[in-house]
From TrEMBL:
Its main location: membrane. PANTHER family: GDNF RECEPTOR ALPHA, GLIAL CELL LINE-DERIVED NEUROTROPHIC FAMILY RECEPTOR-LIKE, ISOFORM E. This is GDNF/GAS1 domain-containing protein. InterPro entries: GDNF/GAS1 (IPR016017), GDNF_alpha (IPR037193), GDNF_rcpt (IPR003438). The lineage of its organism: Eukaryota, Metazoa, Chordata, Craniata, Vertebrata. It comes from Callorhinchus milii (Ghost shark). Transmembrane segments: none annotated.
C-alpha cells in the first residue's frame, strides 16, 4: 500500500462516516457473549474477515501521520464497510477481564476513527452524544428510595466501612493487596505506582460496590473521618506527584493507553452534565456515573478528593503554561472539578442511609440512591450542585487516539 498524498485526518473523517454512528450502536440489543476476543477469533477463522481486519490495522497505522493515495484510501473505506457485517462491529469488552488490553486494542481498531479530536465548538456539540462508550457488562444494582433516614449519632462511617470490608473475604483480600503495594516503597524513589494502580483497578473491578463504595463515598461529619476517606486510595502513591504536569499532557498520555482511554471515554459519557436534567446528569443515572468514576482509579487519570473538608474531586494536574490551549485545558479539568453530575452522584451516595451499614457484617445489602423527583427535590441527597460553566464546555474534547 503506497503512502504518498492523502491526508490521514481527511481519511479518518471519511472513514468515520462509514462506521455505524455511535448513538445507533448504543441502541442495538446485544445478546450472548460478544466480547472482542471471541469476535476476533471468529473473524480470524474466516479468511476474508481476517484479511479485512489486518488491512484495517494497516490503514490506521502511523498515529495519523501517514498519508494515503486515492486508491489506498478507497481500499480502506471498502474494508470498513466489509467489516460491518462481522462480529467485530458490535463487540465489547468487560472491565477487569482477562486480556483486557488485547480486547480493547481490537475494540479501538474497529472504532478509533470515531473518537473526536480537537475540533470546533460546533463539532463538540455533535460529538457530546456520540463519545465512544466503553461497554461494561456488569451493571450496578442500585435501587431508588426516598424514605431513608439518617443516623443522628456522630460516628466515623469511613472507619465502619473499613471494618465491614475486613469481614468480607473478597474485599479484605483485594484491599490488603493494594495497600501492600501502594504503601510499600519499591526504592528510595518511592512506591511502585504501576503496581499500585494495577491493584487498585483490581479492587474496584472485583470487589462488590457494597464494600468498595462505602469506603470511598462514606459520609463524614468531621475532618478526621474525611481524611480517612481521602486516604482510601493511598493518594501519596496513586494520586500525587512531586509536580503537577499540564492536564492536556496527562490526557494525551491517557489516550496512549487503551485501558485509560476507554475508561476516560466511559467517564465522559456516563458523567456528562446536563442543565436540563433534574439530576444534572444527561444519562439520568448516578450509578453509572459513579461506576465510571471508580473505573478511572488506578489509571493515569486517577481522581481523588482534594481535601478533608469537602467532597470536591480533581485529577493531579494544572493548566499552567497551556498557551492558546488554556480554555481547552480548563474544560478538561473542569469535567473532574466542576461537574454537577459527578458531584450530585457522590453527594447522593454519601447521603444515602448508612443505618444498615453494620448489617453487612452478616449479610449482603444494597445501598439506595435517592434520585430527585420531578420537582427537583431530594429528601436525603441534600442540596444539588449546579454547573457554573457552559454545558458544552463541561464535555471536554477527546484527543485523537494514538
Amino acid at each position: 500500500m503506497s503512502l504518498l498524498s492523502w491526508p490521514s485526518s481527511l481519511f479518518l473523517a471519511n472513514l468515520s462516516s462509514c462506521l455505524l454512528p455511535y448513538h445507533l450502536l448504543l441502541a442495538q440489543e446485544f445478546t450472548g457473549d460478544t466480547n472482542c476476543l471471541t469476535a476476533a477469533n471468529l473473524c480470524f477463522e474466516d479468511p476474508s474477515c481476517s484479511t479485512n481486519f489486518r488491512t484495517l490495522q494497516q490503514c490506521l497505522t502511523g498515529n495519523g501521520v501517514q498519508r494515503l493515495e486515492h486508491d489506498a484510501r478507497n481500499e480502506c473505506m471498502n474494508t470498513v464497510l466489509a467489516l460491518q457485517s462481522s462480529p467485530l462491529s458490535v463487540c465489547k469488552c468487560k472491565k477487569g477481564m482477562k486480556k483486557e488490553k488485547r480486547c480493547l486494542r481490537i475494540y479501538w481498531t474497529m472504532h478509533q476513527s470515531q473518537v473526536p479530536g480537537r475540533q470546533g465548538q460546533e463539532d463538540k456539540r455533535k460529538i457530546s452524544l456520540m463519545t465512544m462508550r466503553y461497554h461494561i457488562l456488569r451493571f450496578l444494582p442500585f435501587v431508588t428510595n426516598s424514605s431513608e433516614t439518617h443516623l443522628t449519632t456522630r460516628v466515623n462511617h469511613c472507619l465502619d466501612a473499613a471494618k465491614v470490608c475486613n469481614v468480607d473475604e473478597t474485599c479484605k483480600h483485594f484491599r490488603t493487596e493494594y495497600a501492600k503495594f501502594c504503601m510499600k516503597p519499591s526504592s528510595r524513589f518511592g512506591c511502585n505506582k504501576s503496581k499500585c494502580h494495577k491493584c487498585l483497578r483490581r479492587f474496584f473491578d472485583r470487589v462488590p460496590v457494597e464494600y468498595s463504595y462505602t469506603a470511598l463515598f462514606c459520609p463524614c461529619e468531621d475532618s478526621v473521618c474525611a481524611e480517612r476517606r481521602r486516604q482510601t486510595i493511598v493518594p501519596a502513591c496513586s494520586f500525587e506527584e512531586p509536580e503537577k504536569q499540564n492536564c492536556l499532557s496527562l490526557q494525551e498520555a491517557c489516550n496512549k493507553d487503551v485501558v485509560c482511554r476507554s475508561r476516560l471515554a466511559d467517564f465522559q459519557t456516563s458523567c456528562q452534565p446536563s442543565k436540563k436534567s433534574v439530576s444534572f446528569c444527561f444519562r439520568e443515572s448516578y450509578a453509572t456515573c459513579l461506576q465510571s468514576y471508580t473505573g478511572l482509579i488506578g489509571t493515569i487519570l486517577t481522581p481523588n478528593y482534594v481535601s478533608n473538608t469537602s467532597l470536591d474531586t480533581s485529577i493531579w494536574c494544572s493548566c499552567t503554561n497551556s498557551g492558546n490551549q488554556h480554555e481547552e485545558c480548563e474544560n478538561f479539568l473542569n469535567f473532574f472539578t466542576n461537574n454537577s453530575c459527578l458531584k450530585n452522584s457522590i453527594h447522593a451516595y454519601s447521603n444515602s442511609s448508612f443505618s444498615s451499614l453494620l448489617s453487612l457484617l452478616t449479610t449482603t445489602q444494597r445501598f439506595p440512591f435517592n434520585i430527585p423527583n420531578k420537582e427537583g427535590s431530594n429528601n436525603d441527597a441534600g442540596m444539588l450542585f449546579t454547573l457554573e460553566t457552559e454545558e458544552v464546555k463541561a464535555v471536554s474534547s477527546i484527543s485523537p487516539v494514538l
